[in-house]
Specification:
Distance between the termini: 39 Å
Largest sheet: 3 strands, antiparallel
Structural class: alpha+beta
Oligomer: single chain
Number of strands: 7
Helix content: 40-55%
Low-confidence stretches: 176-193
Order of helices and strands: HHHEEHEHEHHEEHHHE
Radius of gyration: 20 Å
């Protein structure tokens, strides 16, 4: 099978998928193909779309590929929506940011950062499939552990959790205002440091 034909199949599979589809799954369907080749074919498709000035492109999010319209057309697309998209409140975004950086985290740990009860907010995030329960911490009382979901990655356009900005990056982006956001090490931050970074980690999200 010629490369052009494989590229068209990859394009069709991603277009038809209801959620991000991984390179490994695509490679199983496309004859004589590998995940590495799938990634290269996606790059070729995006180069083609860019050259043709198409209104869409393929994003790598949540461990897979997904078609998305370019951000420049967002305000036009919103005018076609019958209902306004649901928005995450400031409190929900802050809670979600803490879960993302500290996961798996218990409710008590999240509340320690925010200083308020987060039970209703966590339930709302679970209902929106942005947060999930991953098990119990092996301590007295066996509290539930919370972590983000693949839907979280999809909504915020992240390939994986490794794409989250480090707290050091957040401080640099904020011009040094979030001084408490600097972790002792690049990989792990003190729980209290998350409070300063939480509101800067995520923009206001629109969930459809």
């Amino acid at each position: 099978m010629e490369r052009a034909a494989k590229r068209q199949i990859v394009e069709a599979l991603i277009l038809a998928a209801a959620e991000p589809v991984s390179a490994a799954k695509i490679a199983v369907v496309v004859p004589h193909c590998t995940p590495e080749l799938v990634c290269k074919l996606v790059e070729e498709l995006n180069a083609e779309y860019n050259e043709q000035q198409r209104a869409f492109e393929i994003w790598e999010v949540a461990g897979g590929f997904q078609f998305r319209t370019r951000l420049a057309y967002a305000r036009y697309l919103q005018q076609l929506q019958a209902q306004r998209p649901l928005r995450l409140s400031h409190a929900a975004l802050e809670t979600l940011a803490i879960v993302a950086y500290r996961q798996p985290a218990t409710r008590a740990e999240i509340e320690h950062v925010r200083g308020v009860d987060v039970g209703p907010i966590l339930r709302g995030l679970i209902e929106r499939k942005l947060v999930r329960i991953t098990g119990h911490r092996d301590v007295a009382g066996r509290p539930l552990l919370y972590a983000t979901t693949p839907r979280f990655l999809e909504v915020f356009g992240l390939r994986s959790l490794e794409d989250l900005p480090t707290l050091r990056d957040l401080r640099e982006l904020s011009g040094g205002n979030a001084q408490r956001a600097v972790p002792a090490s690049e990989g792990e931050a003190d729980l209290e440091n998350l409070e300063a970074a939480a509101t800067e980690m995520l923009p206001e999200a629109e969930l459809h």
